[in-house]
């Protein structure tokens, strides 16, 4: 009997590591040597291999045996790839300031910025918005899922605050309000395929890296502080950027669902910003003050990777 369809098709390999992982999932050979090829820790090959490993913990892939989620040889490969990625990230996103200073830095909004949301608000065309949505679909069609991994690792005020925000992200009990579903509506307005994982082959290395960071932080209890920091960075910076993206959708006539996805985030994330700082971070530090540096690292690493994605998108569009 053939395996039940459980998720998207496996992507095309981008190098020795990803080819080895994908081949192994197809029952075609042994898992790859993680040291093979000296792959760039932020590059297509390593990040795709890692993404595919992580996706087994979400919806899996069509035709891939579900028990491979906990396959010891594959987990050993994943651990080696994670270590290379995390080592590079700690080197490139060092914590050089206190957590309070890092948090305060997130609140500084330039009068005139030069990032992706600024470009899309002022000059973005529908083709840019489609490209942006394809990239972001790798996260937004699973929005909030990576953050849910941290819930069992928290307790008390931090857990209650995190659960309250996640409840909103998952639609507050209404399937049509689940944020992943709202993003599917945005994609439909832009004429894109809304199937989960449909644009994995189009996903750039910087976008894969961002999603992998969430999975890495979420799946390891020792990185719970970094996951909270990442979550804080997302929630605190989301509202202003969402306002600009809503304007871009309206200006280009992208459609009501496309505009609504971002107007919803303007309102929701303005509230979430207060909860995450007061209850999630505040509660976690009350319980475990030693995690302050890890929270700061999660914030700094997220900003570093978002900047890399922004640079890649803007370079592609300007070319």
Write the element-wise H/E pattern from the N-terminal end onward.
HHHHHHHHHHHHH
**What helical percentage do the residues reach?**
55-70%
Question: Beta-sheet strand percentage?
Answer: under 5%
Q: Report the total helices.
A: 13
List the helices and strands and how they pair.
Blueprint: H1 16-25, H2 44-55, H3 72-92, H4 99-106, H5 116-123, H6 126-140, H7 145-148, H8 156-169, H9 179-189, H10 205-219, H11 224-252, H12 256-287, H13 292-318
Task: Please tag this protein with its features.
single chain, 319 residues, mainly alpha, 13 helices
What this model shows, in words?
- The protein is mainly alpha-helical and 319 residues long.
- Helix content is 65%, strand content 0%.
- The chain is built from 13 helices and no strands.
- It has helices at residues 16-25, 44-55, 72-92, 99-106, 116-123, 126-140, 145-148, 156-169, 179-189, 205-219, 224-252, 256-287, 292-318.
- The radius of gyration is 19 Å and the shape is globular.
- The mean pLDDT is 94.
In short:
By secondary structure, the protein is an all-alpha fold. 65% of the residues lie in helices and 0% in strands.
